[in-house]
C-alpha cells in the first residue's frame, strides 16, 4: 500500500492505494467516479480516457503508482455536469452521438485534449486524432462524432453561439422526424448514466464477487471436479457447481422448430458431463473480492477426457465424427426450399449459368462494454437478475426451468447497456449469476474481462454457400439453386431460425421464378452462434449479390442494369413465393443511377497503377419481426403531476428505445397538448413491465411502437 496525493477535477485527493491497481480502478472504486468506463481493459478502446497533466491517457493501462504527488487528473465529471454542459457535450447530444453511450465519455475527454492543443482542426485531423489515440465506437460510424467536434470547436473559437447547439422546438410542437435529444443523452454525455459495472460497484455490502472456472479445451468428457482446495482459499464463500443447481441445469432454445432433431435443451448453465466449447463454465467461485475469487478459481481441479474438437462444419460432418451431443446428429436441422418448376432442366438449357462457392466467416460483435450482470433475491423472495438482456421476457422463460424456478419466482431487468448488436438475444451470464445467488442466498456480481467476452459470448455463425443462377440471353433470371451449411457452434438455440433465414434471403430482391435450395445446421465445437445485426442476411446476401456481379460480368452488362432488370415489380414473388408488400426497388435504383455513374467515373479517374478504385452495388432485403405471429404490449400511465409514463419492455442496446417510446407516444399524445418533456419511459423489468418482445429482428419500432 502507498499513499498518494493528487488533484482530480480540481479537488485535492489524499488516499491510500494499492500501487499495482490501475488508475481506472482507483477512480471508479475508491473515488466513485464511474463516468470513466472500462471496456477492453487493455488500452485499446479509449473508453477509460482521462486527462493527466494536460495529456490524454488511458486509465486502464496506467498503474496508480506511476501517478506522482501533485499530478492533475480530469475525468468526464470535470468537463461538465447535467446542469452546466460543456460545448463538446452539447454538440455530442445535438449530433446524436449518444447512442449506447458507453464510449462517449472517453471520446469527449479525447476531443477536449485535441481542441486544447489544436483549436481549429480539420475533419481529417479529428479523425486522425481519434485513430491515433485508439478511440473506438461501435454505434455511430464516426461521422456524427467528427461533426460534433467541429461544431464544438466553432463555439470555443467564438464563431458559433453556444445556443445553436441546443434543440429548438418546432412551432407546431412536433418532435417526430426531428433531432430531439434522446432522454438519456445528457446522462451519457456527462458519464452519469450507470451501466452494469457501475451498478455493480453500488451494490450493498456483502455482495459476492464471482469468477468462473472455464474450460481450456473445446471438447471433453468431465470425469471429476475437485473444489476442495478452492473452498479453503481466503475470502471464498462458496464454489458453485452443477450439483448446486436445482433445476434442469440447461438453457432451453424455447422456440426450437418441430423438425429440429435436437430437443433444444443442449446448453448447460454449468457443465456437468461434457465440455462443448472453449470457455464453457464449469464452476463459479463466490468470494468477498474479485481478486480472491480469481485466485480460488485457479485451485479448482477439473479432470477431463479430451475428445476430438470439430472446429468447423465440414469437420463435424465427417463420417467418423463423434456426435457432439450424444443421441443428436451433428447435422440436426435441414431447411429445404422449393419454388416453381424443377431447376435441373433449366440449368441444363439456360444460355447463361454461373455458380460459385462462398464462405462468410464467424464474426464477433466487438461491443465496447464487456458482458456484465448481477443477481439477488429480493424482499419478496423473487430472484432478480440484472444484465444486458435484450429479450427480458424471452430469457426469463429460457433460464427459469434450468434454475428450477417457476416464471413468477424470477424477474429479469435490462440494465443501461453499452451496445450488444444482437449477441444478447441469447442469454449469456444470466443463468450463472442466478445460480450463484440461489446457491449462496447473497447478491452476486459478475463481469467478464474482454478475453472472456470474446470467447464466451455468441458470434455470427459462418455460412458455407454454394449458389448458382440461370439466366436468359438478356440477363433475366430463370432459376436459382442453393446448398449451404450453417456452422452454429455447439448450442442449437435459434440455429434452425438462422438456417431458415438463408432460404428467405438468398436471391431476395429478385424475381426468380424457379428455386431449389437446401440449408443444413451443423453442431461444432467452435463458439456458439448468436444473432447479429440483420440475422442471417449478411451471409446470404453476400453470396447472392456477388454471384449477381459474376453473372453481369459473364453476360457483359453493367451490375446496375442486371439488378434493375430483375428486381421486384408487381407480380414478382420472393424466394418463399410471397408477394412483397411494396415494390420500391425500381424507383430506388433509378434514383441512385446518376450517383452510381458519377462514382464510376471518379473511381476511374482516381485509379493508379498502384491503387485501384471501384464502385460496389448491392441490394438488400430484411424484415421487421420474428417469423410467425408476433406481438407486443405497452401501457400508458397518467401520473398525478400530469406527466405520462410509457411502460414497456423495449430493451435499449443503443438503438434508442428511450427515444422510441417518448417520440412515438408524443406523436399520439400531441393532440392532447402533452409536450415531450412530460413523457417518461421505463427500463425493462419483467416484474413491472409488460412483454414487449425482444429488441431484435428490427421489430420494436414496428410492434412496440404500434402498441
Polypeptide structure, described:
The chain is of the alpha+beta class. The chain folds into 6 domains: 2-71, Beta-grasp domain (Ubiquitin-like (UB roll), Roll); 87-193, Orthogonal Bundle (DNA polymerase, domain 1); 208-306, Aldehyde oxidase/xanthine dehydrogenase, a/b hammerhead (Aldehyde Oxidoreductase, domain 3); 322-363 and 459-606, Aldehyde Oxidoreductase, domain 4, CATH 3.30.365; 372-455, Aldehyde oxidase/xanthine dehydrogenase, molybdopterin binding domain (Aldehyde Oxidoreductase, domain 4, 2-Layer Sandwich); 635-706, Aldehyde oxidase/xanthine dehydrogenase, molybdopterin binding domain (Aldehyde Oxidoreductase, domain 4, 2-Layer Sandwich), CATH 3.30.365. 28% of the residues lie in helices and 20% in strands. The protein is built from 20 helices and 25 strands. The protein has a 7-stranded mixed β-sheet with strand order 8-12-6-19-16-17-18. A 5-stranded mixed β-sheet has the order 2-1-5-3-4, with helices on one face. The mean pLDDT is 96.
Strand proportion, as a percent range, falls in: 15-25%
How widely separated are the two ends?
Answer: 57 Å
Give the % helix.
Answer: 25-40%
Class per helix and strand makeup? alpha+beta
Output mean pLDDT. Answer: 96
Domains, number? 6
Largest sheet: 7 strands, mixed
Instruction: Report the count of strand segments.
Output: 25
Report the principal-axis shape.
globular
| Rg calc | 27 Å
Low-confidence stretches: none
Major sheet: order of its strands? 8-12-6-19-16-17-18
CATH class of the largest domain: Alpha Beta
DSSP summary: helix tally: 20
What CATH calls the topology of the largest domain is Aldehyde Oxidoreductase, domain 4
Superfamily (CATH H level) name of the largest domain: Aldehyde oxidase/xanthine dehydrogenase, molybdopterin binding domain
CATH architecture of the largest domain: 2-Layer Sandwich
Amino acid at each position: 500500500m502507498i499513499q498518494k496525493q493528487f488533484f482530480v477535477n480540481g479537488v485535492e485527493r489524499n488516499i491510500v492505494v494499492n500501487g499495482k491497481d490501475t488508475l481506472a480502478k482507483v477512480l471508479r472504486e475508491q473515488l466513485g467516479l464511474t463516468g470513466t468506463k472500462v471496456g477492453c481493459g487493455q488500452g485499446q478502446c479509449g473508453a477509460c480516457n482521462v486527462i493527466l497533466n494536460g495529456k490524454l491517457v488511458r486509465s486502464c493501462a496506467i498503474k496508480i503508482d506511476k501517478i506522482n504527488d501533485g499530478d492533475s487528473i480530469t475525468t468526464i465529471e470535470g468537463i461538465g455536469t447535467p446542469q452546466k454542459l460543456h460545448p463538446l457535450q452539447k454538440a455530442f447530444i445535438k449530433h446524436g452521438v449518444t447512442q449506447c453511450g458507453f464510449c462517449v465519455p472517453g471520446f469527449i475527454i479525447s476531443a477536449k485534449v485535441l481542441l486544447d492543443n489544436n483549436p481549429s482542426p480539420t475533419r481529417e485531423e479529428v479523425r486522425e486524432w481519434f485513430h491515433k489515440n485508439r478511440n473506438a465506437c461501435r454505434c455511430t460510424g464516426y461521422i456524427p462524432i467528427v461533426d460534433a467536434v467541429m461544431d464544438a470547436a466553432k463555439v470555443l473559437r467564438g464563431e458559433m453561439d453556444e445556443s445553436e447547439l441546443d434543440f429548438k422546438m418546432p412551432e407546431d410542437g412536433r418532435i417526430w422526424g426531428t433531432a430531439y435529444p434522446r432522454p438519456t443523452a445528457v446522462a451519457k454525455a456527462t458519464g452519469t448514466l450507470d451501466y452494469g459495472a457501475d451498478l455493480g460497484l453500488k451494490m450493498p455490502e456483502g455482495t459476492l464477487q464471482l469468477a468462473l472456472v472455464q474450460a481450456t479445451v473445446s471438447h471433453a468428457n468431465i470425469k471429476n471436479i475437485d473444489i476442495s482446495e478452492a473452498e479453503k482459499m481466503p475470502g471464498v464463500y462458496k464454489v458453485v457447481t452443477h450439483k448446486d443447481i436445482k433445476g434442469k441445469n440447461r438453457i432451453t432454445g424455447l422456440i426450437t422448430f418441430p423438425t429440429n432433431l435436437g430437443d433444444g435443451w443442449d446448453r448447460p448453465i454449468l457443465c456437468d458431463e461434457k465440455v462443448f466449447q472453449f470457455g464453457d463454465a464449469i464452476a463459479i467461485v463466490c468470494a468477498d473480492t474479485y481478486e480472491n475469487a480469481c485466485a480460488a478459481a485457479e485451485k479448482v481441479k477439473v479432470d477431463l477426457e479430451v475428445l476430438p474438437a470439430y472446429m468447423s462444419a465440414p469437420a463435424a460432418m465427417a463420417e467418423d465424427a463423434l456426435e457432439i451431443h450424444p443421441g443428436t446428429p451433428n447435422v440436426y436441422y435441414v431447411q429445404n426450399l422449393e419454388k416453381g418448376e424443377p431447376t435441373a432442366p433449366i440449368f441444363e438449357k439456360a444460355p447463361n449459368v454461373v455458380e460459385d462457392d462462398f464462405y462468410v466467416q464467424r464474426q464477433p460483435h466487438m461491443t465496447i462494454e464487456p458482458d456484465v450482470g448481477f443477481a439477488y433475491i429480493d424482499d419478496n423472495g423473487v430472484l432478480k437478475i440484472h444484465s444486458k438482456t435484450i429479450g427480458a421476457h424471452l430469457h426469463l422463460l429460457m433460464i427459469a426451468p434450468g434454475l428450477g424456478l417457476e416464471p413468477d419466482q424470477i424477474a429479469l431487468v435490462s440494465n443501461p447497456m453499452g451496445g450488444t448488436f444482437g449477441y444478447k438475444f441469447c442469454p449469456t451470464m444470466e443463468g450463472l449469476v442466478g445460480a450463484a445467488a440461489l446457491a449462496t442466498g447473497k447478491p452476486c456480481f459478475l463481469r467478464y474481462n474482454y478475453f472472456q467476452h470474446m470467447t464466451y459470448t455468441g458470434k455470427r455463425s459462418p455460412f458455407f454457400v454454394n449458389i448458382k443462377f440461370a439466366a436468359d440471353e438478356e440477363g433475366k433470371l430463370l432459376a436459382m439453386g442453393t446448398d449451404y451449411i450453417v456452422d452454429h457452434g455447439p448450442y442449437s438455440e435459434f440455429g434452425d431460425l438462422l438456417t431458415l433465414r438463408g432460404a428467405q434471403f438468398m436471391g431476395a430482391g429478385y424475381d426468380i421464378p424457379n428455386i431449389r435450395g437446401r440449408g443444413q445446421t451443423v453442431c461444432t465445437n467452435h463458439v456458439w452462434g448468436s444473432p447479429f445485426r440483420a440475422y442471417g442476411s449478411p451471409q446470404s446476401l453476400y453470396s447472392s449479390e456477388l454471384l449477381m456481379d459474376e453473372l453481369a460480368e459473364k453476360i457483359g452488362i453493367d451490375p446496375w442494369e442486371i439488378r434493375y432488370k430483375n428486381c421486384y415489380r408487381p407480380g414478382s414473388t420472393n424466394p418463399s413465393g410471397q408477394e412483397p408488400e411494396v415494390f420500391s426497388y425500381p424507383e430506388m435504383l433509378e434514383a441512385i443511377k446518376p450517383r452510381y455513374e458519377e462514382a464510376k467515373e471518379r473511381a476511374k479517374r482516381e485509379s493508379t497503377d498502384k491503387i485501384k478504385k471501384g464502385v460496389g452495388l448491392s441490394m438488400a432485403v430484411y424484415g421487421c419481426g420474428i417469423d410467425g405471429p408476433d406481438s407486443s404490449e405497452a401501457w400508458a400511465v397518467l401520473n398525478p403531476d400530469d406527466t405520462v409514463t410509457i411502460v414497456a419492455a423495449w430493451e435499449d442496446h443503443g438503438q434508442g428505445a428511450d427515444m422510441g417510446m417518448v417520440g412515438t407516444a408524443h406523436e399520439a399524445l400531441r393532440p392532447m397538448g402533452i409536450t415531450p418533456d412530460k413523457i417518461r419511459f421505463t427500463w425493462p423489468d419483467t416484474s413491472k413491465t409488460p412483454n414487449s418482445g425482444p429488441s431484435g429482428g428490427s421489430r420494436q419500432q414496428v410492434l412496440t411502437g404500434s402498441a
